[in-house]
User: What shape does this take?
Amino acid sequence: MSVPELTCEEISALLGRHPEWTLAREGKAIARTFRFKDFSEAWGFMSRVALLAEAQDHHPEWFNVYNRVEVTLTTHDAGTSGGLSARDARLASEIDRIVGN
Assistant: This one.
């Protein structure tokens, strides 16, 4: 079953609420890079996000090198070919809460 995609207005509102996130993949995703003091702090962040993602059954795409974590959020079953959904907006809000934004 397809998940409803966010409208252009909803995407604009999402980015307004979360200005550190940027559109990626031709508007089908949002992305943000986080930098931490060290690897341990980055890993702790990833662990907290992983628990949230699992509880929401919505998992980020991410890349980690030492103190940097790059997170991309998209809903693969949104619309006809994937895109942004309320799931992404909810997880971005929770991630921002974890880092104090």
Remarks:
- The mean pLDDT is 93.
- The CA atoms of residues 18 and 101 lie 8 Å apart.
- The first strand starts at residue 22 and ends at 24.
- The beta strands are 22-24, 29-35, 61-65, 68-73.
